[in-house]
């Protein structure tokens, strides 16, 4: 169902679901951030999480709880994504229904939606360079504005770096910066036989 109602990026695909009924599946700030973004686009947003209470930044949780078109679905697991040509519903299993703690949802129910956003965060797979370059606490590669790492001659770009806002367009821009920086580094090693590429808006002329 990927591309037919299942998405892994609220910022990327959210605008395609204007005034639709959406579900956000995940835990922690990634799912809360997605719901915060989608609430201004969708007619209804369901935040589905396995825990009894939402986990994440309390300020965002309180803000979402005040929104009329946002509903939290606690102790819930998505059992199935339903639909043929596109997503039309989710089958939800509620894991905590007792007489002392009743739930507005049955042990298994169907939730009619037009799209589902899976927001679980991400893991930077950088183990292969952990002994080469400096990483931060999230195992992201630390780079400067030229996409240079802590090891001379090694440049990095994309979601594995410590640059915020993980988006394809940002990764593409970083890729261009890293490529230009690597080219200039190689030219420097060759003794400057070719001029470095500056490719910026700065002018040497005074105004």
Word description of this protein:
The protein contains four helices and eight strands, in the order E-H-E-H-E-H-E-E-E-E-E-H. It is α/β, with parallel strands linked by helices and 207 residues long. Helix content is 21%, strand content 21%. It has two domains: 6-119, FAD/NAD(P)-binding domain (3-Layer(bba) Sandwich); 127-189, FAD/NAD(P)-binding domain (3-Layer(bba) Sandwich), CATH 3.50.50. Helix 2 (29-38) packs parallel to helix 3. It starts with 5 loop residues before the first strand and ends in an 18-residue tail after the last helix.
List keywords for this structure.
single chain; 207 residues; alpha/beta; FAD/NAD(P)-binding domain; 2 domains; 5-stranded parallel β-sheet; 3-stranded antiparallel β-sheet; 4 helices; elongated
Overall morphology? elongated
CATH class of the largest domain: Alpha Beta
Summarize the helix and strand pattern as letters: EHEHEHEEEEEH
Q: Note the beta-strand portion.
A: 15-25%
Which structural class is indicated by helix and strand composition? alpha/beta
The percent of residues in helical segments reads: 10-25%
Q: CATH homologous superfamily of the largest domain? A: FAD/NAD(P)-binding domain
Overall strand count: 8
CATH architecture descriptor name of the largest domain: 3-Layer(bba) Sandwich
Number of domains: 2
The radius of gyration over CA amounts to 23 Å
How do the strands of the widest beta sheet line up side by side? 1-8-2-3-4
The total count of helices amounts to 4
Largest sheet: 5 strands, parallel
CATH topology of the largest domain: FAD/NAD(P)-binding domain
Uncertain regions spanning at least 5 consecutive residues: none
